[in-house]
From TrEMBL:
Residues 686-810 form the Alanine racemase C-terminal domain. This is Alanine racemase. It catalyses: L-alanine = D-alanine. One of its GO terms (cellular component) is cytosol. The keyword Lipid metabolism does not apply. Its cofactor is pyridoxal 5'-phosphate. It comes from Flavobacterium rakeshii. InterPro entries: Ala_racemase, Ala_racemase/Decarboxylase_C, Ala_racemase_C, Ala_racemase_N, Mur-like_cat_sf, Mur_ligase_C_dom_sf, Mur_ligase_cen, Mur_ligase_N. Keywords: Isomerase, Ligase, Pyridoxal phosphate.
Amino acid sequence: MSIKTNNIIKAVNPSFEGIQPDMEIDNVSIDSRSLQNNIGTLFFALPGKNRDGHNYIPELIENGVLNFVVTHIPNGCKNRANFFIVNDTLKALQDFAAYYRGLFNFPVVGITGSNGKTIVKEWLNYALSPDYNIIRSPKSYNSQVGVPLSVIAINEKHNLGLFEAGISTTGEMEKLAQIIKPNIGILTHLGPAHDEGFTDMLEKIKEKLKLFKDTDVVILQKNAIAELELEGTTTFTWSYNGDADVNITKTIHTDTTELTVDYNGDSFKVVIPFFDDASAENAISCLMLMLHLGYSSDFITERLAGVYPIEMRLQVKNGINGCTIIDDSYSSDYQSLKIALDFLEQHKTHKKKTIILSDVFQSGFTVEELYEHVTQLLTANNISRVIGIGETISTQLKDFPNFISYKTTQEFLTQYNANSYSNETILVKGARSFRFEEIVVLLEEKTHETVLEINLNSIAHNLKFYRSRIKPETKIMVMVKAFGYGSGSYEIAKLLSHQKVDYLGVAFADEGIALRNAGISTPIIVMNPEASAFSAMTAYKLEPEIYSVRELRAFIEIAKQKNLSDYPIHIKLDTGMHRLGFENYQLDELIELLKHNNFVSVKSIFSHLSSSDVPQYRDFTLGQIDKFTQWSQKIIDTLSINPIRHILNTSGIYHFPEAQFDMVRLGIGLYGVGNDAQERKSLENVGTLKTVILQIKDIQPGESVGYSRKFMASEKVRTATLPIGYADGIPRSWGNEKGYVMINGKKAVITGTISMDMMMVNITGIDCKEGDKAVIFGTAPTVVEMAEALGTIPYEILTSISQRVKRVFYQE
Ligand SMILES: *Cc1c(COP(=O)(O)O)cnc(C)c1O
């Protein structure tokens, strides 16, 4: 894009304060972390309880950004940049996008529905891109923020737009419609997704159809209600019942679906490499648009034969030789490259960043322009090493420093040498036809197929939930001890530090040191510091919990030796947990030691509740809170200090928000597990433990399965063997028909005893094959359900998952 800032004034009608109202803008950003922010950036400071964009403006000005859309000018920023001041920055972003969209005049397809939007968009892109310069929503950018960002990426060279619109409640579609301004509408499958936001199906349909208010034609499956709503708009319908403009007969084969299409007295066949109903519907949406655009049946048949599964997520994986791999081996266009580079910056675990990149497609630029832009992007993102694969990229980027090129993926694979990759974060990004998944396989750490998938969006959601339960000024500390409750500490700490949590809590010094080495600068408290680690702790700026006079003396001794002054410490009071901490009778001695002591400084005073989740002990908890109030007050008054006070853990935040003092300590809730059933409803599942079926067996009546013949078949059963056992942290007591796993959405009960590295499950009646996925826990069964059945607590199950299980992090 290229637009003058005075057009912003036209588009969003702000009041202006700044240095120069007429500057050139060539990109829009809402993400302060992006290394793509530069002098040409227009930054929209979106609000948010956790991450108000306004807070990042001083940093952005330092980095050269000069144009901001804001609700107010942050302190100290006046006269240092241009500020376009509005009441609502999200609305301004939407208005700006709507204005920008109005500058272009080419066919735009608006896609909505409950399911299939992204797949239809991606398949259409695949099928039509040989003939059009397509601009499309990247990934599944279909929200109130995602849609404007998608549209703002349009440029003069594009001649077809494919944008998806997703809504979760009434009133949202109208805004998206103004931004997308589609000429052609596609309504995909209408299912139950996002039903919570609507009173009924009719309301949902009505809202969705608002996208099509001004379209020339709407493509949809024959649907009386929708057609009534669309009265006055031309429709182009399909049906399996012979009553539509295009009539389809579907035949499902082992792993393909054959669609016979009858249209205008003509009949032809489309075969897609899928055998499920949803894929058939999505393919039909695609062929309908192709018919509308005038494609011949031969072309449609040929293009749709190549549709493929869509992976929208960028995945972070452990790589060989200490590398981290970011797998984006499914697309390579300019827009998604920008997103992937931002993602790389946020998730890198090393200074050195490498990208393996295929030819880049569909930008709407000429080849030279495109690679000039790509070069700029790679430079702005400080990419240390670029490996280009493909005819075009090899020549176009040849002058880039540290550029290595291969003409084909095959050439790369034959010359591959594992030793040339170590301790770097590698983004693997290639168009589908380059089959970069084969490169990912080589670079990935070789472990078994069992993975614990961690959903970073859910972590952010859960944090937001607990933040909404406390006052805005209350600080928040997040416990990442025990390897982030088994979920992986570094990735999570990185997310939390961006979310500006105030403290991180670890159990031992070495956990804190690992976080510092990984670049985390958020203050860290070590909850069980050992005297032997004090020296290292001070070197890494780790702050000790001080629970006894003996410990305090030892720490002061180290501080003295190292010439430290005012080193932050955290005083732990024992108000009833009886684990660690000062009791009432020890306070005088503590105060005496701290008086006139300049080596350390009391940063916080805290205590821990033993039973915040046990309703029966409510009075006991209130008693703990009361003691904490009095004891801490005594220390504060005698020493005349002003420390942070905190006592609440997850269940405390939920049940005793009145005792939040100055900070709370969130643990298990962040990881999606609340101790209270009501609380859990507000949380999202974070971890999903998955494995695959190794082998399938048919067991005859009278035969047994597993060690000690604990399972005897009384009738014919079919079993699947999974490569996960008690050494991976699955409690052995979960076997013998007590527990189950989910395979293709169905419960498969565990047959026989769980072995060290394997277990068998009963798959009689379940449609599955070797290589299919099995979910050990996640949304079903939940860790809570497992813990209840096994007489333990979710904490134990989560933290027991062995380190040999690979953690994979993803973000939608
Ligand atoms: C682990 C821990 C927490 C967090 O407890 P959750 O129940 O997981 O929220 C808080 N404070 C201290 C001192 C802890 O050790």
